[in-house]
Amino acid sequence: MKAYIRGLAYALPEQVEENEKNRLTKKTGILRRHIAAEGELASDLAVQAAEKLFAKGLDRSKVDFLLFCTESPDYILPPTACLLQNRLGLSKHIGAFDYNLGCSGFVYGLGIAKGFIESGQAKNVLLITAETYSKHIHPQDHSTAPLFGDGASAVWIEGLESETSGIRALHYGTDGSGAENLIVPVGGMRNPYGVDKKETTDQYNNIRDNYHLQMVGSAISEFSLEVVPETLQNVLAEAGLAKEDVDYYVFHQANNFMLKYLQQKCDLLDVPYWNDVAEYGNTVSSSIPLALEDMLKANADKILQNVVIMGFGVGLSWAGGVIDLTKEKYL
Question: What confidence tens digit (pLDDT) does each residue in 113-143 have?
């Protein structure tokens, strides 16, 4: 039994925010973003994405395991995955848990699903990613807010009789020494809510505090440019693929500047490479599956057997691999 992606769907908040036409927008290529309403949570978007997937013909009663990737849970406890099991009307005889990861989270989720399926513990895994990063960002941090959008994805991963796996050559990386470059300092056990709020204003009048997201963009860029090329080489080598053998490269959709820089750094200027951040911005763990569905729609006449995916960001964490989308039937 080998793991394959069989269906994808995504959901976005109805509320859309337009980015100002300025130098930052020109650099990032992000024109607008979908932003969750005040009472709209990541779990609500997760339900919408999953229901869209079921509406395509996938049977919710056959889900064996539910994985939920988010850094915007409903509660500290219980796991939001348990709440989603109930809201989605899934069997009580399934496993379900949250895992806390950002931009590499989708690739990690595929690895977990692959492990469950190919070890015989499950046949059908529902992987959901959902984020409302807009709620982590200070409303007056005008350098960070235009980068991130909210959204969710639902992906059905199924075990099929096959000699080759539809999810392979997975490589992971972690560097916790850079954790403070992308962090919300207050809200966990180390700095619980109630500690003094410390607010800073930069030279451009962007306001940040320790209750909201703090990001050192230059450090994240340097980290990505360091780890992604090497990881890509390792993925291709393990998969036995030359650069030209890959049908599409779909990296984490951080922003246009980062994607173009990585495309050049990884020597991918002459191959199919997805870069479409204009309407969504950085949707964190949902960015790759969202891009995959859009890419599939734009290439409906093509056979996409070798698609390289790469996630990188908060943690610091990164992961890459190769997926076979020829068994995807429920677009």
Answer: 999 999 999 999 999 999 999 999 999 999 9
Using the CB atoms, write b or e for 184-222: b if 16+ within 10 Å.
Answer: bbbeeeeeeeeeeeeeeeeeeeeebbbbbbbbeeeebbe
The reply to whether the predicted model has a pTM over 0.70 is yes
Q: Which of the following is catalytic: 19, 34, 69, 103?
A: 103
| 282 belongs to the catalytic site | yes
Give, for 48, the enclosing helix (H) or strand (E): helix 42-55
Domains of the chain: 1-331 (3.40.47.10)
Six token digits for residue 191: 């700095």
Is 138 catalytic? The answer is no
- 3-class state of residue 95 by DSSP: strand
Structure tokens at 103: 């931009």
Residue 103 a catalytic site member:
yes
| 264: helix, strand or coil | helix
Tell me how far apart the alpha carbons of residues 183 and 216 are, in angstroms, rounded to a whole number.
9
What is 159-176 written as a DSSP string?
Answer: EE--SS-SEEEEEEEE-G
The residue from 181, 256, 275, 282 that is catalytic is 282
| 3-state class (DSSP) for residue 29 | coil
Backbone angles phi, psi at 304, to 5 degrees: -115, 80
